Amino acid sequence: MKKTEQNVILQSISEGVFTVDLDWRINSFNRAAEEITGIPRQDAIGKYCRDVLRADICESGCTLAETMRTGKPIMNKAVQIIDANGKRKALAISTALFKDSRGKVIGGVETFRDTSAMEQLRKEIAGRYSCEDIISQSHTMQTLFAILPNIAESNTTTLIEGESGTGKELFARAIHTLSFRKDKPFVAVNCGALPDTLLESELFGYKAGAFTDAKKDKPGRFALAEGGTIFLDEIGDISVSVQVKLLRVLQDKTYERVGGISPVKADVRIITATNKKLDQLVKEGKFRDDLYYRINVMKLELPPLRDRKEDIPILVEHFIARFNRLHNKNICCVTGEVTTALLSYDYPGNIRELENIIEHCFVLCEGEIIEIKHLPSSMRPVLEDKLAQDSEPATIKQVELALIKQALKRNKGNKTAAARQLGINKSTLFRKMKALDIDKSES
Amino acid sequence: MKIAIPVYGESVSNVFDFARTLLLVDIENGKETNRSEMVLEGRFLSQRAVQLKKLGADVLVCGAISQELATMVLSSGIVVIPYVTGTIADVLNAYLAGQMVSAEFRMPDYKSGAPRGPGRRRRCCRWQGGRR
């Protein structure tokens, strides 16, 4: 086969391919490699492969180096890279020796394919999330991220408080994934969804004959989570009788199955969550104070989305990428109007509501850009009210003025935070403030 | 001023997210006064950003960096000089001489106008607050 023909084949295959010489410098780089790494061929040629591929194995166990050392090819090794846009990608790479026509080794060949979509799907199915999967750049969330590994290592009972849709279960899963229990089960129970009598047998299991139709023993969720983590969501909704039994698990690390007579030992980490204020429920006598103090060893308070609007742009981007994969579409972005609308809304349903809004837009959007007409109708009256509040008729200038003033007010005059929330650069904010004659003292 | 450089052997580590060792260099009046090496904590991004802040780093000179980590480091008030490649000695000398933009210290596809930190946002699929 001629060299030009080989080149045509190399350029047309969907797997990324590059070859290196004996000094680890890249001497061929195909089109798919350009797409996966985001680095143009002319920039990659002549450079060290570690500076181009930017993989997690480059410094801890380079497969190409192993192949060069042993002469044996390596197939489908899972690695992570950072592409030219700073995005993490999961790849499956294979390596082999590169020989000339006389069989002399002149370098190495590396082929790779992007498995990010598959990896994400696997993660969603298996529910294995870490704090890298919780998307936020807000200061409050960064503080939580910083203490999350310590909480995970500590093995203490943790209470997660936050409104519905703020990601309580995601945090619980992240704590589990970061802990030494990560290879054991994570069992989530929504206590609010089960009636009291059912909840007890569901949590602790039952013995055969404990009640009508209990024909054989059934393990409870605590037994299923043995060695791992149990996540009790809506803990504020459980009855006093279940509270007593839960207290015993926390105090003695034992429980009794319904109809059982001997206690069962439990080696389970308990993470609880609620969207209610438990201290208030304690004051009202609806929640046992001794249980409250037991579960409240470590408390994480998740902020609602309206208090971290600077995260809306990256969340929108994340959901667009996710729904593109799920719906097999190619939507790239949202219009400026939609941006304004999304930043003006208060999200009573938090991130789950934002996710639903973007999914709604995906169903209606047939092009590549989400427009205002694609937003749910239930959202529009609120937005129209918001925009019409200060100004009528609303010109672009007036809307900009209102949005900037609101953002400055929300961030107590902090221009960096306001700019981030508005999705513009700080310098753009200053320019607009000057153009719109917004007094700095006013902010 | 403290400069933090994730390193691998004698070179700048190719990706800060995956690096295992951090070099911390104290600079006073344009001269190096002290240096120390330490293990980079954990493999979780937030830990790395917090560690840099705890160490009192003013500048992070590193190879590639993910957008998420760059955002965290930048929000800690640390200046990020990303996409740097080369030996520690050469990079430090270049930094002290104010020659970091020199092409020999730049990873492939680096453009000098690129923002310092969360990668280049040049594709239309990046959500930048609206249609572009």
What is the fold's blueprint, element by element?
The complex is a heterodimer of chains A (443) and B (132).
Chain A: H1 3-12, E1 16-20, E2 26-29, H2 31-37, H3 41-44, H4 49-53, H5 63-70, E3 74-82, E4 88-99, E5 105-114, H6 116-126, H7 139-154, E6 158-161, H8 168-178, E7 186-190, H9 196-204, E8 205-206, E9 218-219, H10 221-224, E10 229-233, H11 240-252, E11 254-255, E12 264-265, E13 269-274, H12 278-283, H13 289-295, E14 298-301, H14 312-327, E15 333-334, H15 336-344, H16 350-364, E16 369-370, H17 380-388, H18 396-410, H19 415-422, H20 426-435
Chain B: E1 2-8, E2 11-12, E3 21-28, E4 31-39, H1 45-55, E5 59-61, H2 67-75, E6 79-81, H3 88-96
Parallel strand pairs in B: 1-5, 5-6
Antiparallel strand pairs in B: 1-2, 1-3, 3-4
Helix pairs in contact in B: 1-2
Written description of the protein model:
The complex is a heterodimer of chains A (443) and B (132). Chain A has 443 residues and is an alpha/beta fold. Helix content of chain A is 44%, strand content 17%. Chain A has helices at residues 3-12, 31-37, 41-44, 49-53, 63-70, 116-126, 139-154, 168-178, 196-204, 221-224, 240-252, 278-283, 289-295, 312-327, 336-344, 350-364, 380-388, 396-410, 415-422, 426-435, and strands at residues 16-20, 26-29, 74-82, 88-99, 105-114, 158-161, 186-190, 205-206, 218-219, 229-233, 254-255, 264-265, 269-274, 298-301, 333-334, 369-370. In chain A, the strands form 5 sheets. Chain A has a 5-stranded antiparallel sheet, with helices on both faces. In chain A, strands 7-10-13-6-14 form a 5-stranded parallel sheet. In chain A, strand 3 and strand 4 form a beta hairpin. In chain A, helix 7 crosses helix 8 (168-178). The radius of gyration of chain A is 28 Å and the shape is globular. With 132 residues, chain B is of the alpha/beta class. Chain B has one domain (2-105): Nucleotidyltransferase, domain 5. Chain B has helices at residues 45-55, 67-75, 88-96, and strands at 2-8, 11-12, 21-28, 31-39, 59-61, 79-81. In chain B, strands 1, 2, 3, 4, 5 and 6 form a 6-stranded mixed sheet that branches. The longest helix of chain B has 11 residues, at 45-55. The radius of gyration of chain B is 15 Å and the shape is globular. At the A-B interface, helix 4, helix 7, helix 14, strand 15 and helix 15 of A face helix 1 and helix 2 of B.
